[in-house]
Amino acid sequence: MPARVGRVLVVDDDALNRRLLTASLEREGHSATAVENGGSALIALAGSPFDLVLLDILMPGLDGIEVLERMKHDPDLLHIPVIMISGVEDTESIARCIEAGAEDFLPKPFDPVILRARVNAGLNRKALHDLEQLRVRQVFTRFLPESLVDQVLAKSDGEPTIGAELLTGTVLFADLRGFTTYAEARPVDQVIAALNRYVSLMTDAILDNGGTMIACLGDGVISAFGAPVPEDDHADRALAAARVMAGDKLREFNAWLRDAGLGDGFRMGVGINSGALMSGSVGSSRRLDYTVIGDTVNAASRIEGLTKEVPFPVLLSDETYAALRGAPPEDLVFVDEFEIRGRRSRIKLWGLGAPLEGGGGR
Fold first, then answer.
1. pLDDT for position 295
2. The dihedral of CA 152, 157, 158, 160: what is its sign?
3. Which end of the chain, N or C, is surrounded by fewer C-beta atoms within 10 Å?
4. Is the distance from CB of 248 to CB of 187 less than 8 angstroms?
5. Strand 4-10 to strand 52-57: parallel, antiparallel, or no bridges (unpaired)?
6. What is the pTM of this model?
7. Spatial separation of the C-alpha atoms in residues 255 and 241, rounded to whole Å
8. pLDDT digit string (tens) for 103-124?
9. Are the beta carbons of 279 and 214 closer than 8 angstroms?
């Protein structure tokens, strides 16, 4: 597909120049489109997926700068390279355009060969930028639902990092019962195959319900809802994911184990807690991960551990129960008050009472 080059003509239109420039670009295999001056030019640009824009200033004034500055503040146009062409000996305007974000400058009368070289160089930069954005998108889609990736990209300005932020959300911990003992008695290839299958199924349940995959620690899975993108129904999403994880997904995993001759199946526990979360990318320049930290996270882990002591595979805190936006499901029942490490007061816990694969307990 030929590269698409747009041309904004500021203040006036030079018909001869337009024909010469368009013909020159088309000889290079580009699709050249000229759009007129003013607000209509920006509307035309926003509606057309250009790979590069030529900002052609034919008369003195700041109109070109206004067009450029508006482009650089429009998310749809922000990353399109701009080459400024000026037939005006206006040093201030040229300097301001470059400061406002023009990637290149070319005076008139321009040499067509040099113009084509500048255009091709700008298109190469655009191609490299697009590849980098694809790489960043692939980084985010490893742990974020596709529906949230664009929002995170906008917040991160295209960088593969997520800024530090204090959010209110829900954290979910899940763990397989007895997997360590299972792993010690099996060949490594069987253990890894089983673990990959389990993590894949649980990740699907989390992402499909709008959650963020935080980490896999062996057979333990950590996820967050309402982070890094705030969601009012974060508790509802976490509960829905837990129901699928401890129900359909665990049944599917255990059936796969039996069919593959890799075991009889597992029980699992899921702990859920809601509250304040410190959210952001952590690590070094060589390796960055997204995480959430804080007392809310620690308590969710402790709650998951309590599923070993009750006949419920899914337990959630009173904070999560209170954060539910929809009507609490009929199979959500109050269990009891428990002491957990790190908390001075006892914590009220609720359990999913419907029969789920694996049950609770050890």
1. 94
2. negative
3. N
4. no
5. parallel
6. 0.67
7. 20
8. 666 666 656 666 666 666 666 6
9. no
